[in-house]
Structure formats: C-alpha cells, structure tokens
Write a structure and sequence with these properties.
The protein folds into three domains: about 45-55 and about 275-330, no CATH class; about 55-65 and about 210-275, no CATH class; about 70-205, no CATH class. By secondary structure, the protein is α+β, with helices and mostly antiparallel strands. The chain has helices spanning about 1-30, 125-135, 150-160, 245-250, 255-260; strands at about 45, 50-55, 55-65, 70-75, 75-80, 90, 95-100, 100-110, 175-180, 180-190, 195, 200-205, 210, 225-230, 230-235, 270-275, 280-285, 290, 295-300, 305-315, 315-320, 330. The strands form five sheets. It has a six-stranded antiparallel sheet, with no helix packed on it. The longest helix is centred in the first third of the chain and has 27 residues, at about 1-30.
Amino acid sequence: MKRAGTVAALILAMLTLVAGGATAGILLTPEPTPEILAAPEDFVDLEVTQVDFNDEQMVVVEPVSGESVVLSSIANGTITSSSCVRDAQFSSGSALFRVDDAPVIGLATSTPLYRDLWGGERGSDVAALNAELARLGYESGGSDTYTVETARGVRDLVASAAGYRPDGFLLLTDLVWMAQQTVVTEDCAIQVGEFFSGGEVASSVGGLSSARVPILPPNATPGERVVMIADARYPIDDNGIISAEGVAALSETEEYMNWARTEGAFDLKLPWQLKETLDASLVPPASLYGIQGGRGCVRTESGGLWATILGSQLGRSYVVFDAGVAPPSRVVTTPAPGETCR
C-alpha cells in the first residue's frame, strides 16, 4: 500500500509539471501584433487616378456699398397695410404696402419709370420695363414699345400682388422704383392708418457698387480665375476685382443681404477657382523626385516623367504631365539606381 501511494504521488507531481510547462509556454509565446498596429507594407506599384482640377479655394470678399437709397411713391390715400419694417428685404415685383387696399409694387428697372404707360409708348423706360417683366417671368413686348404683351405682363404682375388692373395700364401710383432687384430697408417712413400723399416710403441699404478679394491665396496654380456666385461663374482679375456682372449677382444673394443687414458682422466668402479645369493625375508623393520650382519627375516602371506639381490633398499629389506625354496608368514609389527623367 505504501508503494502504491508513492506511485500515485509521483504521477500527480508529473502531471503538475506538465500543466505548469504548458502554462509557461502560453505565457512566454508572443501574441501576434494586431493588424491595425502592424507596420504597413511598402507600396511599390500604385494605380494613377485621373481627376478634374480647378484649385478651388475659399476667399474673403470685401464688398463696397453705396450711399443709402430713398424709396418713394406718388400714391395717394390711406395706408391700409404695410410690410415695411427695419431690415426688411423686398424683391422687385413684390408689394411694399397698400393704399386704399391697392398694392404699391416695387419694381427694379435699369431706367427709372417716370410716366404712366397706357399702350403704344416707346422709349428706354419701356425697354427697361419689358426686360424686368421678362426676368420676373411675365409676358413682355421684348422691345422698347409698350405692346399688348407688355400690358398682359403688367396685368399679371399686379394680380400677383392681389391687385386688379385688367386694362394692363402701368400707373406710377402703383409703383415704387427700385435701383436694384432686392433691397434691405434701414428705416420706414410710413405707418398703417395714416394718410399718405406721396413722398418717402423707406430708406434702403446702399446698393453694392463693387467687390474685391483683398488677399488672394499664395502659391495658387497660375491661370485665369473666376468666383462662384449662386452656382454661376464670374470673372475676377489678378488684383482680386470681381466683374460688374459678378457684383450684380452677388448683390442679389441671401449671403450678401445678411452681410449688409448685419453691417459686415461676418466674413463674406466665395469659392475662387480656375476658369479652365485641368486634367490632372493623382499620384503618391513618394513617386516624385528631383523636385525643382514646382516641377518634378514621376517614377514609372519605364522611367521618370516630367510633370508640373499643382498641389496636394489627403496624401496625394496633383500633377499635370508635359504636353505630348500620356499620363501613366501606374507609378512606382521605390527609387531606382541611377534614375533619370525624360
């Protein structure tokens, strides 16, 4: 019995050693490095992506506004309603107030309207009226003559403001002339219930006379530039001056209206980009070498190719290969001994 107990103890000791060795083996064996922490493999051969490049950057615009403009009317009667309050925004074709329950409509024309128009009249004022009716989406004569089409456009314009002018006559008592298509009021001179015998209705923020970008981004890709305003592109010169057409478009945007209303409390910004989009190639920076003055060589399997470096974004460089050189489909990042450029 004593011998059997000794054997059992010996077996138990051996099992303990085996288990301990296995545990030690587990503790001493290094765990594999998590994939997210592992060193990345060297990229040797990479595909080239072709993209449109316009070098778009946001720039701060410096608007220049003119003097305040007085809005006036020759309407006569009791003011029965008014939408005029400080900082109100009015667009051409909308009613500013009502006299004897008839709408008095703001209308922006390139030539101030100075006479009643009954039909058949000709002149620059009629041409301006026809142009504004067309812009607002109404019928117009399309010339400098007050035609039947003009009369129908005027009738529909008045009707859109809940007015009634079935004869299609344009009377100055129905209008407030506006120097621009949208105005922001500074002060109002009328009150509901008072008798109005003509005169000032309100003063408005001065119209936008010019706009410029005082600081253009450095190191921009050379080339003619445009600014984006309301999904349209307008020229801007090398001194940052925005074209007259661009200024007119900017003056009608909600962003400019808010800027003017808050007296420039925030930066007014616009996208600034190349007029002509470039066909660029996206390559890894490691494929570039021999960089001098904005140009460099791009490594390919068949050797280096000269290219102009436009910029970089998100770990990739934008390049344009020299004229007559077809962009490669792939590039390499591993330097080759004695590499040259062609």
